[in-house]
Amino acid sequence: MKSFHLHLVSDATGETLSSVARACLVLFEGHHAVQHLWWLVRTPGQASRVIEGIEANPGIVLFTIVDPAVRNLLEDACRRLMVPCIPVLDPVLFALSNYLNAPFHALPGRQHEMDAEYFRRIDAMHFTLAHDDGQLIEDFDEADVILVGVSRTSKTPTAMYLANRGLKAANYPLVPGVPLPQEILDAKKPLIVGLTKDPRSLTDIRRNRLAFLNQDTESDYADYEKVREEVNQARKLYTRYNWPVIDVTRRSIEEASAAILQLYIRRNGSGGRD
After folding, report:
1. How far is Cα 24 from Cα 256, in angstroms, rounded to an integer?
2. Can you list the domains of the chain with their CATH numbers?
3. 3-class DSSP state for residue 7?
4. Largest CA-CA distance found in the chain, in angstroms, rounded
5. What are 154-169's pLDDT values in tens digits?
6. pTM, full prediction
7. 85: how many CB neighbours lie within 10 A of its CB?
8. DSSP string computed for 167-221
9. CA 80, CA 158: separation in Å to the nearest integer?
10. 260: closest CA among 139, 183, 148, 137?
11. What is the pLDDT of residues 195-247, one digit of tens each?
C-alpha cells in the first residue's frame, strides 16, 4: 500500500471536499491517502498555518476557497513547494457563469448557510428518527417516502440517508404472519417503496447478526428456506399494491437512496428535494 499526503482546504465545513476526495480515492487501489483536514480557512493567518502544514507534509492540495487574498496565498505557496493545487469547484463555477452570463458571488461558506433548506433537512431528520421501524404509524401519511421491507434490508440507514437529503422517510418492517397496517394502505401522500434482498445474502446477514448477539443462528429468522419464503411473500405484496421495488443486494446505501430519490422526483414532477 503506497501512502501519500492529501490536504483538503475549505473556507466552510469541508463537506464538499470530503465527498469529492472519497469518490475519487476509491478508484485507486493500492494507494492510501494520509488526509490533512483544514476547515474554515478564511483569513491570511489561517492560510499561513495551512501552508506550514503543507510544507511539513508535501502532497496534493484540494481546496474550495473563494476569497482572492486567501486563495492567492495558498496557490503561491503550492507553486513554490511544487505540489499540485486544485480548486475543485472552479470548472463548475466558470461553466455556470459562462452559460448564465452572470458572475458568482465569492462569499466564504455561502453554500453552507443556515437557510430554509438547512432547517428542512433537520426537520426531516427528526421525523425519520421518530418514525423508524414502524413507530408512530398514525403519522405515516405525513412522510415523503415510506420504506417497507423484511428485516435486515437496510430500511433504517436508507431512511436516514434520505432524511439527510431533505425527505421525511418512515420505514416499516414486514413480519411473517403480521398483516400490513391499514395506515400504510391508506397513505396517499408518500411514495411507498419496497426493499428486497437476495435470500442467500439476507440469510448470511441474519446469521451474522444473531451470532453477534450470541443468539441461536439456527432459528427460523436465519433459516434459508424461511427467509426465501419471506422475501417471496414481500415481493408479492409489492406487486399487489404496485409499489416500486429496490433490490439492495448489490447496492450501497447511497446507490439505493439515489434510485429512490429519482422515483420521488419522477412521481412529483419536480427536483425540489436536493
Report:
1. 20
2. 2-112 (3.40.50), 116-268 (3.40.50)
3. strand
4. 70
5. 999 999 999 988 999 9
6. 0.63
7. 19
8. --EEEEEE-TT-PPPHHHHH--SSEEEEEE--HHHHHHHHHHHHHHTT--TTSGG
9. 46
10. 148
11. 999 999 999 999 999 998 889 888 999 999 999 999 999 999 999 999 999 99
